[in-house]
Amino acid sequence: MTSVQIAETVEELQSYLGKARADNLTIGLVPTMGFLHEGHASLINASTQQSDLTVVSIYVNPLQFNLNEDFDVYPRDVSSDLTLCKDHGVNIVFMPSEDEMRPFLSEKPPNLGEIVEIYEGESRPTHFQGVATVVKALFEIVEGNYAFFGEKDFQQLVIVKQLVKDHSLSIKVVGCPTVRETDGLAKSSRNVYLNQNEREQSVVIYQSLMAGSEAISNGETSIQNIELLIREVIETSPLANIDYVGIVDPLTFGTPDNITNEVRLLVACNFGQTRLIDNFSAKREVVSNQ
Ligand code: PAF
To answer: What is the CB < 6 Å shell around ligand 1?
Structure first.
């Protein structure tokens, strides 16, 4: 276990980072909303491997929750978060209060175009504006070399990359693979909301994405057929309530006419009050003639 510094103010954080910069150390940032699990641990591991110093930010960002969402009850467990950070070699945990962050969040939200209005953005209006505002503020505060985000929130990852490009920020955004439970459910802080039946049936999301990607790998090129297949698998669960199924170009988020290149399969689905999202990359298997 390494010792971890805790910074509750930007000033404290800057004083730790100032020393690191003076020593020419590279800085990796893992932005989180806390309630850390193995998915976050994998981002931290990627950061500690790639950077000299790792900062984890823990901030439940009110701007990215819509009014009907779970901001007030969002799961929090600071003591277990700090243990996970210590165990994984984090150097600094930045845990600002809302008052501390407010001055950094007052800028007009970055304009990110249509991608913030589709899929997650359509179901959760203003969500991505809130994410982009806080991520940009964290990037400016930390001035890190790398930032690590999970592919589980694939649309968020694409939007953050676009934010960096649009604003010519010097940080490199690194996407890390989704970490899953043994039955395939993507790890998420919100999984704790699921009751036993919902938890058992939530595996249909993973199964539907597997079915979709297998069909594509075997040569299916029809968007409609893949969407239908994914829906059919999810609908084997009586508790599942599909929000959307998307088959998109992984860079533009546009829907191709046919599946000829790599696509991202996207699913959002409610189980009771809990909204789960997941995604898979899929492409046609190249069959060699030999
Ligand atoms: O993915 C998350 O946990 C959040 O959206 C993030 C990136 C920490 C911004 O609040």
So the answer is: 31-33, 61, 64, 131, 134-135, 153, 156
